[in-house]
Design goal:
- This protein has 250 residues and is α/β, with parallel strands linked by helices.
- The chain has one domain: 3-Layer(aba) Sandwich (Rossmann fold), CATH 3.40.50.150.
- The strands form 2 sheets. Strands 7-6-5-8-9-11-10-12 form an 8-stranded mixed sheet, sandwiched between helices.
- Helix 6 links the parallel strand 8 and strand 9.
- Helix 1 runs parallel beside helix 2.
- 37% of the residues are buried.
Amino acid sequence: MGARFEELDFRPTPMGEISLRRRREPVTGIDILEVKLGEEFLMSSLFTVAEVEVARLALAELGGAGLSVAVGGLGLGYTAKTVLDDPRVGDLIVIDAIGEVIGWHEDGLIPIGAELTADPRCRLLHGDFFALAASGDGLDPQRPGHRFDAVIVDIDHSPRHLLHPRHAAFYEPEGVARLAGRLSPGGVFSLWSNDPPDEDYTAVLASAFGEVKTHVVRFANPLQGGESANTVYTARSSHSSARGTTSPDS
């Protein structure tokens, strides 16, 4: 068992001070990793169910092999690892705006990092996911115009609770329509949210995608007792330009 509290790294970044720490959780008696940006908790290894589900639910919508996947937000790596655990995935690009987070994985401060960096299918890209999504060349600078079978995003707390105001355009109708154009026909966009399902955002997704679902992901909360819940949105592009319909699944 490690020390009760250990700060593994602390760095100033353009988005604020970011820290990686390991602490022993007194309720569970296990060591957990936590990432904070300023005073906000971004993620914890104690709560990873929804980070896994945002990838699993997206890939469950897809058939075929050699899937091309983009993940926005690296974090502790659970979403990326879930993508790579699917043998149908042919290539994965993981985009994170904070180079220090990528460095934690490359330097072995985060256990999953060794697996991600050793997998030839996986590439970690230091970049602004939202700027790339809005650009004319698309998400992968090495493959301008490339279309993905799945785009999976876990960055902001929710479409309404953003880490930075400049992210807002991504969740508006124009940004959602542009994202739909980054997907192959029948491709899937999935988004993690810490908030309950948002009907207005679901309607925005439905305006650009052929099928939209909301999934309420419940998991045990050993700190507060009982259950907590996150939301995963999945939106599948149509094979035509027809306006989509909404299919809730909660």
